[in-house]
Design a protein that fits this description.
Blueprint (H helix, E strand, L loop, with lengths): L9 H13 L20 E5 L2 E4 L4 E4 L14 H13 L9 H13 L5 E5 L2 H16 L3 E5 L40 H4 L2 E4 L4 H11 L3 E6 L15 H11 L3 E5 L11 H6 L5 E4 L10 E5 L1 H4 L1 H4 L12 H43 L3 E6 L2 E6 L19 H13 L2 E2 L5 E3 L6 H20 L4
Parallel strand pairs: 3-13, 5-6, 5-7, 7-8, 8-9
Antiparallel strand pairs: 1-2, 2-3, 4-10, 9-10, 11-12, 12-14
This protein binds pyridoxal-5'-phosphate.
């Protein structure tokens, strides 16, 4: 039974007007786009994977705040644990509690490289902490990153194209037509960063050979989930590992999206490659803001030994520690059954969409990892990995945008570029309604001449 929107969201529209008077942009600029419409979506309440807006419309949520709320809304056990803390403890202090110990144990048990941990508040901050640790460890300065990956909004890693300068050094550039360009960015900060394309073995090797003596850290998403989930070519992550070791560069995996999503041990477990450092954020704390850097002892020891600083009033604050300890426990108990259930549902949705696309005459390509996938209309191939943006250059902007809008009208929220982030508490009924909404959307696209 599909949940057609009952109305055109008059309350959300009116509240958007008032909101914009106080807050001229959204709290996070990226969040502006979450509603497929041009107003902000005001939510009244939620339960599990369902959200209810102030106009009485019901949605199944595959946006999950860009990752954190993977245990859905008002998870009974998590909510209870947080309420218990609020009732009995101060929420911000510089003292410590048993939750710290519980969390440390859980992270170390699940994340292969987590000999030691440093808490932070957001993924953006964790990335900057990793950079600082790597510089202290190597005594070098430069950052190496890949154009397809995202690592937060600080100038030294925000966006960036591969653009070798006349000297051949691929110093980070952000062109004015890049979606990460904005006034106010520091060009000086970019001078410390090299940007190269993901999955290009030759450029990777050349960059290490020519500039390895300058590079402190190679920071990357093992799967650029922020870049259409293109997959690492076989051997690419292993090659990064080999070169980092050879040139004394700290290998740092950005697990802000993959961490606890693609599996309890993140991408490092999925691909079986152990990075020196890894940055985590988003879903491990069940929707409460928190982040951390995990690392092998050999590198993390610079924290105490060299007194590498990362202050932060809210680093490891009690509510986050309680939320994280509870969320990781929920996610990983019963031998990770929640992951198996989530992935079975994801497969059903992905297969269902491929079948529907066949039925209604659409080309669709699905790029996927456990917990996340994109439905890219206009590119054929179904569930087949993609390794470069060129392979999806023919995607149909019109079909993709229309599909997303129609899904929202049919009660299913997905992210821009038709990215789906899986919630771990979806029900079978949610899955069925999702596929019914997709069928309705495709039917309408055919009627509108968009097939
Ligand atoms: C891979 C990755 N790294 C870092 C960040 C930055 O995290 P935050 O938004 O919590 O600062 C993000 C955010 O989307 C991300 O996806």
């Amino acid at each position: 039974m599909i949940m057609k929107k009952k109305n055109d969201c008059p309350k959300s529209r009116a509240m958007t007007e008032e909101f914009l008077d106080y807050f001229p942009v959204a709290h996070s600029n990226m969040r502006i786009k979450v509603s497929a419409q041009n107003y902000r979506m005001f939510i009244d309440h939620g339960e599990g994977a369902r959200l209810y807006d102030v106009d009485g419309n019901e949605y199944i949520d595959y946006c999950i705040s860009y990752g954190p709320t993977a245990l859905g809304a008002v998870h009974p056990e998590l909510s209870e644990a947080l309420v218990d803390l609020i009732r009995t403890q101060p929420t911000s202090s510089f003292f410590f509690s048993e939750d710290d110990i519980k969390l440390g144990k859980l992270i170390r048990k699940n994340v292969p490289n987590a000999d030691r941990i440093k808490m932070a508040m957001t993924g953006t901050e964790a990335v900057q902490v990793a950079i600082r640790i790597a510089r202290a460890y190597t005594g070098k300065k430069m950052i190496l990153k890949f154009a397809e990956c995202f690592h937060g909004w600080i100038d030294n890693v925000f966006g960036g194209d591969y653009d070798p300068s006349p000297s051949g050094m691929p110093v980070m550039t952000v062109k004015e037509d890049d979606h990460s360009w904005c006034p106010g960015l520091s060009e000086i900060a970019r001078e410390e960063t090299l940007v190269i394309p993901f999955n290009d073995f030759d450029i990777l090797e050349d960059t290490f050979k020519n500039y390895g003596h300058l590079i402190a850290i190679c920071h990357f998403e093992a799967v650029p989930i922020n870049g259409y989930s293109i997959q690492p070519k076989p051997g690419f992550i292993e090659k990064i590992r080999e070169l980092c070791t050879k040139y004394n560069v700290v290998m740092s995996m950005d697990e802000v999206l993959t961490g606890f999503r693609v599996g309890p041990g993140g991408a490092q477990e999925l691909f079986g490659v152990k990075p020196d450092l890894a940055t985590f954020g988003k879903m491990f704390a069940g929707g409460v803001a928190s982040a951390f850097v995990a690392g092998v002892d050999e590198v993390m020891r610079v924290l105490p030994e060299q007194n590498v600083l990362s202050a932060g009033t809210f680093n490891g604050w009690p509510l986050a520690q309680r939320a994280a300890a509870t969320a990781i426990d929920i996610l990983t108990r019963n031998d990770g059954q929640l992951y198996k259930d989530m992935y079975a549902k994801q497969e059903k949705i992905m297969d269902g969409i491929v079948d529907l696309a066949d039925k209604y005459g659409f080309k669709v390509r699905i790029t996927e990892n456990p917990g996340c996938f994109y439905t890219i209309f206009g590119v054929e191939g179904g569930r087949k990995p993609v390794y470069t943006f060129d392979e999806i250059a023919d995607k149909s902007e019109a079909q993709n945008a229309r599909f997303r809008t129609l899904m929202e009208n049919n009660g299913v929220l997905i992210l821009p570029e038709n990215r789906w982030l899986m919630c771990f508490v979806l029900t079978d009924e949610d899955v069925q309604w999702t596929l019914e909404a997709a069928e309705e959307a495709m039917k309408q696209m055919v009627e509108e001449g968009l097939a």
